[in-house]
Amino acid sequence: MGSNAGSPTSSAAATLGGRLLQLIGDRDAAWFACEISRVCAEPYPAAGRPEYGDVLAWVIDATVGVVIARLGAAGPRETLILDHRYTDGRYIDGDALPTSERWVLRTVSAFLAEDLAEGQRSLTAAEQFDITLRAEILADSLTWLDFVLGVDLPDPPDISTA
User: Fold this and answer.
1) Which of 41, 46, 55, 53 is nearest to 11 (CA)?
2) How large a percentage of the chain has pLDDT more than 70?
3) How far is residue 22's CA from residue 95's CA, in Å, rounded to a whole number?
């Protein structure tokens, strides 16, 4: 259960997204940079290679899915809100973040708030950015996914479904 960002996600996009995530986990910066560059630079990818927007949609969908799976879905008339803080407890001002990190925060937040139109608008806009910002957004999105996969959170509370 994720955002269904750009639904449905192709298996090629999921495979490449998973490969990129593995490269982050392996700390293989050289191959990661090479793969990110290929995804962002190919306006018409070779047969079988997914487009940038499909890979980005898979990463965002996976991130939203992990957050929901770890914290539980919002109940009726509830909304999940991302609250970012530094390790010392101070709040992070989303507007002060670099453009790519702000894009990830706002896009994931839109899908968590079930504002699918805003989330989709954000995904579509990312495909139009220059190659450098596209690469930064994809890299930051993958870094967020890697982070949320590794966060040690308690199991969500049991929710009655009466």
Assistant:
1) 55
2) 84
3) 30
